[in-house]
Amino acid sequence: MENIRYTIRKVPERTVVGLSRRTCNADGRSIDDIPACWTEFFAQNAAAKIKNRAVPPAMYVVYSDYASDWRGEYSFLLGCGVTRAPSVPEGMEVRRIPAQTYAVFNAKGRMPDEVLGVWSTVWLSALPRTYTYDFEVYDKRFARPLNKEVDIYVAIDKEKLEQEP
């Protein structure tokens, strides 16, 4: 991962509630499924339906339930961080992201191009991914009119990373 900077961070458990899709990069479905999920989320004003939203507010994209690696099917969830999820609005799902170690990347600039650029680099890297839960955080930095930023958390096996030359 010579061309892109990241930090290693142990992140506590977090919970996200939102809209979900099952998709795949290899067959091109994600090109339609992911923007469609964003469109539906905003068209339904989904954030307003989610109870117990965490403060400060942030939207999350959670990638989970990987069939294999980045070329296989996975679940994509767009939602809000919550403090608890005793009930979930109809048509939505909950993801409980366990505490784990992440390689954290920062995408800055033109969106969604910069986010896709980070993922493209990650997909082609030798980073020892666990394919458990990866996520993106869309906080107040993403709401800026210029210089938008998104943090991308990629779950890794820290021991394997430390073994690499």
Describe what you observe in this structure.
The chain is α+β, with helices and mostly antiparallel strands and 165 residues long. The protein has helices at 29-43, 46-49, 113-123, 158-163, and strands at residues 7-11, 14-24, 59-64, 73-82, 93-97, 100-108, 133-138, 149-155. The chain has one domain: Regulatory factor, effector binding domain (Multidrug-efflux Transporter 1 Regulator Bmrr, Chain A, Alpha-Beta Barrel), CATH 3.20.80.10. The longest helix has 15 residues, at 29-43. It is globular and about 50 Å long. The chain starts with 6 loop residues before the first strand and ends with a helix.
Key features?
globular; Multidrug-efflux Transporter 1 Regulator Bmrr, Chain A; 165 residues; 8 strands; alpha+beta
Which of globular, elongated, flat, extended, rod-shaped describes the shape? globular
Count of DSSP H/I helices = 4
Beta-strand residue fraction: 35-45%
Order of helices and strands: EEHHEEEEHEEH
Class by helix and strand content?
alpha+beta
Q: What's the CATH architecture?
A: Alpha-Beta Barrel
Q: Total strand count, please?
A: 8
CATH topology: Multidrug-efflux Transporter 1 Regulator Bmrr, Chain A
Task: Please outline the helices and strands.
Elements: E1 7-11, E2 14-24, H1 29-43, H2 46-49, E3 59-64, E4 73-82, E5 93-97, E6 100-108, H3 113-123, E7 133-138, E8 149-155, H4 158-163
